[in-house]
Amino acid sequence: MNINATEVVKLPETVDTTKGTLYLPPRTLHYGLYSVTVIYNVSRTNEDGVLVWETITGESGVNVGKSDLVVVAVKGGAPRIRRGRPTLQTLNLNPGHFYFDPDYPEIPLVSFTWQCREEGEELPSEGEKVTSDPPTSREEYGTGQGREGGGCWGQGPGMMSNASPNFSISVNLFRTPYITYKIEVATRSKDGRTSGTGVEVEVVEGDPPTLTSACSPPWICRQVEGAQLVNPQKLILESGCVVEAGEEAVGEDGCGKVPLNVAGVAGSLIQPLDVMDVAIGLNQRKLALLDDFWVKFGSQFRTFDVQVTATRPGETSEGLALQRIRINEAPVGGTCTAEVMQDIHKDEEEEGSFEVEVRVGREEPPTLIVTALTDTVILNCTDWEDPEGFEIPKYSFFATTERGEKVTLTFSSKVILPYANLTLWAGVSDQLGAETLYMTAVVIPLLPSQELFKEYQTRKTLLKAVSARDQTRVDMLLRNNKANDEEEEDESSATQEKNKDMLSSVDKFSITSMDEVLQVNNILGSIADPLPKESQEGAVAALKTLAVAADSTAPLAQQKDFAAGALATTASLLTGVNKNVKKGNGTSEKRAEKMVAMARRRLRRSIWNQTEAEEEEEVEEEYLPSEEDEDANKKVESLLGVVGSAQGSLLASAVVGEEPARVEAGGKVNMAVGFFDAGELDGRVVGVGGATYVFPSYCSIVSEPDDCLTNKSITVGIQMAKWSNQVHGYGGGRESLGDDSSTVQLSLVDAASHPLPVHNATRDFIIHIPRDEGSSVEPEVVEPRVSNTMPLSIHKVEVPLPNLGVSVLVSPSNQSDASQWVLAWSSSELNGSLEHTENLLYFNELNYHPDTGFYELFLDSETIGEATGTYSIGIGHYNMTEAVQEEHPCFEDPPPGTFIYSFATGFNESYSFSSFVSSCLFFNKETLSWSSEGCRVVGANTTITTCACNHLTSFGSGFFVAPNAIDFSYVFANAGFLDNLTIYLTLIISLALYFIGLVYARIKDRRDVEKVGVIPLADNEPSDQYLYVLIVHTGHIPKSKVQFLIAGDWEESDVRTLNEAKTSRPLLTRGSVDHYLMATSRPLGPLHYLRIWHDNGGKGRSSSWFLGYMVVRDIQTGEQFQFICNQWLAVEEGDGLIDRLVAVAGEEQLRDLSHVFTHSVDKSMADDHLWFSVFLRPPRSRFTRVQRLSSCMALLYLSMLVNAMFYQKVPEDGAGGGLRLGPVSISPQALGIGFISNLIVFPPSFAIVFFFRKSRPRKVKESRLQIALRKQRESAVVVEVSQAVWPSSPDVESEGSGNFSYSLDPKSTTLNSTVSLKELIAQQEKDKDKNKVGRRRKLSLPWWFVLVAWFLCAVSIGTAVFFLWAYGIQFGNAKVTKWLTALLSSIVSSVLFTQPVKIYLGDETTN
Fold first, then answer.
1. For 297-309, how does the pLDDT look when each residue is reduced to its tens digit (9 = 90+)?
2. Are 738 and 772 in contact (CB under 8 A)?
3. Do residues 434 and 328 touch, judged by C-beta distance below 8 A?
4. Which of 536, 416, 437 is closest to 479 using CA atoms?
5. 427, 530, 1033, 1105: which could join 1038 in a potential S-S bond, CB 3.0 to 4.6 Å?
């Protein structure tokens, strides 16, 4: 309630009044004093043991005051700039554009007062008004026009006449160069608030570039008089160059390189500072003053000048933009305390009655003895002030654990604590976020007694805290439960249900500040695992909501805290998602059978001595993702989107050359982000969480020539993450990963944080991935067994997949004799002979590790290739025997000193042996499977696997998405009917229904022919020659005789009967529109009313009749009159009348929305809705039902084809880019697919319908109205359906059957002339031809375009059916069933909902 106005203020619907914290967004309330009332509904047990509800209210006052205006003159708020003369440079000051009103930003400032002076001059006193306006040209100087004084324009310092929001002037008009001028402006808002700003302009000779300087992002600074107020923490200043009209751009930024210089300001003394070791980016567009800068210089200076300078090529004058920054001091002078509140009675805390027992120790720091779960701690802060004079907006409380973990507490005064050694802190923050941390106590925890703990459980404290929206207490209780359960992992159904119930309350907690977001994220992380499968999607959605609520303008430390918390929660959710999908997939018999079949195929391919028939290549099935895979992938991609947004927020605070910002989340995941110069990327090593990336050159990454960076400066951002467990623990090839395999991720972005897709780089990324501690195999001690035929000790190594790496480690027991040891390996089995020992190596040719004493053989991915199966490793010993000189008569003896090498058949020395395989896989998000494509293993040991990959991920944010490919060799080889029953039945049934529908449509078309035409009324007199067409819109079939009469200005008709005409078709049927021809002896003149009735002669409801409206058209004059009824003529319906008098509809009635809209919708549904019109088609339309049905089928099949082409091609959450409209996000892939889909479906379907509608008939048929006229006057001249011209005269009378006489004078009662009807018709034809010249003819096409439409229709249906058949076989029965289910729901909703709503809205908009 507004106390000043004594009125109740209704809060907007967007304000949530049901949570524990009431958050009013900026500008919710106007200025004034308000009373805020809170109402609690509390349940408690009364003295009789009955549960009752009580209502408790509380009230507080809120004063909404006025905010300060923020006004700057130039972009970025630089207080000092430099401009040149006598060039064409212009000084533009725009406070009317660069101001900010926090209270009413939509209302412009109303007053601007400008003044100008030289630096060092004083402005006139307030009572002395001096006007100093700039000259129109430099010729005014020195001409005795009063411009010999000081100031900017030679008239002394003073006020200018300019009162506009902006000030623009040629720099050449300033009186003297090499002088600094100060231009100031005072502003005022509509509600009386004032503010001002000024800028110092150095005027020099020459053409310096126009530079800008600003804080990045803008909200880290606050504009105060003459400076930017900043917190003493990492600060980024971004410079730029403005290319004014007529200036020439230099380089990519307009000014080439932009160096920055930093100087400290102490009073009036400017002292240059050496910031090389405490700043980054001195020669870049972004300069970062690091935390060490403030440590080094903050005690000496409170204000600093940071200036950017640049020079154009060939120029000597430097451009300048100076940014003055002033240190914002944190709040001072106050104290904070922590006390323990003890309950008197167990329910009195709810009732608000308690005693306070102070247990704060006297030693520093103070100690606080707290009983976990039961004691309530009171936190309080007093007497704090902001040195800058602003109000203190925020007090926060938190605790730190022994491990350094930060635990957010509350903004209120009461908290409970878990059983843990904690240090309690208070944070007092000013409006810019400068925070003073105050240690309030060191907590010594006590375990509650058994009685207290039972009481705690009985009171259901956690449930009450949830009900009371006390999120701090919930957080503390969950932390305590988590700490007690750390030693054992509880995945019982009871725990899952408890977490599920808690999850349902998460959305009720307040997340209006960053502290609350951190707190609720911790609650979510505490219950994220275990969760039932059906609740995981809700947890993912809750985390996404927190990511959206996270304040991107919060201090960097808080953003890092949220990133760490979000990563930890994501890791917990990923664990639960992957565990559930493994359980689901593990019970699938088809999956198990498929894995066995794949193993058999690998085994057959690994044996070299197969017969030719056995070596015939089998076609390996493409992995078909299960429903569990797809469900898990949807959740994982949403979670990775949260990680991406956290990375993007941190990246916004990074600068080129700075070490990447790193975040660790409890050992589960590590993240690093940073910017690098593209020219320095080659060979750069970046690590995170033990994983290391070695980058190739930027040019090789983007597949461009090596000199692609010549004369260019490009910034590249990296986003890295290393997960201790699997991220995608599902999909094809999942069996090749260990359950505890770690996952590393890397993505590149440009300077604006837009993703850079990396595919097929010309040089590889080298990735060092840490191996799991438990993955290495302990060496075994081997006592060799050899024989004369096989002198090697054989070991077997299974290689299950292509492109793996194999590591073999051997350590002889006698290292001194290792030079005579050998190792042989083969990709087949060594069974009793050395036949396949094609690779023989001495130990001194292997890699030796002196720290372990092992010799290593490593076979990389290129060596292994596609050869999978069992590899054999043989270890042996070579004997070296000197050749004996035998002096054989037939053979020449070897030279002396020749040695003969042979395998030692008596080899028996022990050795240690171990082997393992390594893989480098990435998750292909298109196929939901693990793949090694583009990656290879280039090194491995017991701790590290080294991979070389030419891409970062298998996907990128492309606009166009390639459709599902068709392997026709597979399709034709697997086209069996029973194996693909679903697609065959779908096509057969749909085509059969189409042909049945054609028969129905043809029958209805023939009946429609009978419905068209104009029916002469049965009681027309052959001698009557004045003709009217009656168009009757009815809604019920009457058996009664319907009669009417029509009255006009000049005459009224006789009583006429509607439904006695001689015709074979039924008249006045439900929803019909019947045309009648009425003849009268003379014109009736302008019509006034219609009287219509029936004799109620039918039986039952057949006696009743509903009349919509009747249109009466004068054939001779073309005039049209409408009689709108929309009522029953029935004794048992409505008002019971069967005789109605209906006045002619006036302009207002004709425009009545209900009438026009109903008529328009009925017509649109019957004619424009392609599917409905097959059944409701207007009989007079040339677009037949057969043509409409064929058009529908062509559209249906084309839509099915497009849907199949892009089925499962769009991820749920795009990696980046695209459109975001509030909560709705549209990925680039979806945009591309939508464009291509419309390109395929729209042109042919539109052409088919257009050609059918617009094709003229081959033979022009005689007008049905002429036929009716001929029946009416068999011997008379046929009157065309035209707009004949008849005089508006009452003096018209009949004179025989062939002539009409009429008076040209409406006042005359005598006949002035007589005209033959034939002559009149001839004259009408001439007038009609004249009207056609000025009237736009409707578009029509030659008759043969209907054949073109039929051809397009047949081609569309035939082509679509063929490719649908191919896609159906390619997909397989299971996938086709899912595709058809999704497609059917889409089609049904489009036909029954989307199209009608579109027609409804279109008609309503038109009307």
1. 988 888 999 988 8
2. yes
3. yes
4. 416
5. 1105
pLDDT value at residue 1194: 86
Distance between CA 137 and CA 148 in Å, rounded?
15
In sequence order, what are the residues at sequence separation of 6 or more whose Cβ sits closer than 8 angstroms to the Cβ of residue 665?
A: 564, 565, 567, 568, 571, 671
Contacts from 971-975 at CB under 8 Å and sequence distance 24+? Answer: 971/1366, 971/1369, 971/1370, 973/619, 974/1369, 975/1369
Q: Torsions phi, psi of 163, nearest 5?
A: -125, 15
Dist CA 980 CA 1368 (whole Å)? 7
Rg (CA), the chain: 45
> Between the CA atoms of 1353, 1356, 1358 and 1360, what dihedral angle is there, to the nearest 10 degrees?
-150
Helix 1345-1371, helix 1373-1389: angle, nearest 10: 140
Q: Is the dihedral of CA 1389, 1395, 1398, 1399 positive or negative?
A: negative
Distances (CA, A) of 791 to 423, 424, 436, 786, 788: 69, 72, 77, 5, 6
pLDDT tens profile 745-803:
898 988 888 888 888 899 999 998 887 665 556 788 888 877 777 788 888 888 877 88
Strand partners, 1112: 1030, 1121
User: How far is it, in rounded angstroms, from Cα 1168 to Cα 1163?
Assistant: 8
> How would you class 1140 by CB atoms within 10 Å of its CB: exposed for 0-12, middle for 13-18, buried for 19 or more?
middle
Residue 1010: φ, ψ to 5°: -70, -20
567: left (phi over 0), alpha (psi -120 to 50) or beta: alpha
Phi-psi category of residue 87: left, alpha or beta, with phi > 0 → left and psi -120 to 50 → alpha: beta
Type of residue found at 135 = P
Contact at 8 Å (CB) between 422 and 445?
yes
- Exposed, middle or buried: residue 52 (CB in 10 Å: 0-12, 13-18, 19+)? exposed
Q: In this structure, are residues 685 and 765 in contact, taking their beta carbons and an 8 Å threshold?
A: no
Q: How far is CA 1401 from CA 468, 1389, 1398, 1406, in A?
A: 45, 16, 5, 8
Both structure tokens of 223:
């504009």
User: Strand, helix or coil at 350?
Assistant: helix
How far apart (Å, rounded) are the C-alpha atoms in residues 921 and 937? 9
| 55-60 contacts, C-beta under 8 A, 24 or more apart | 59/35, 60/35, 60/36
Residue 669 amino acid letter: V
Which of 95-104, 1093-1102, 1333-1342 has the least mean pLDDT? 1333-1342
Helix (H, G, I), strand (E, B) or coil at 586: helix
With b meaning 16 or more CB within 10 Å and e meaning fewer, what string describes 1219-1240? eeeeeeeebbbbbbbeebbeeb
**Helix H or strand E segment including 167:** strand 167-170
Which of 601, 1374, 1371, 1383 has its CA nearest to residue 975? Answer: 1371
Tokens standing for 694? 């070695």
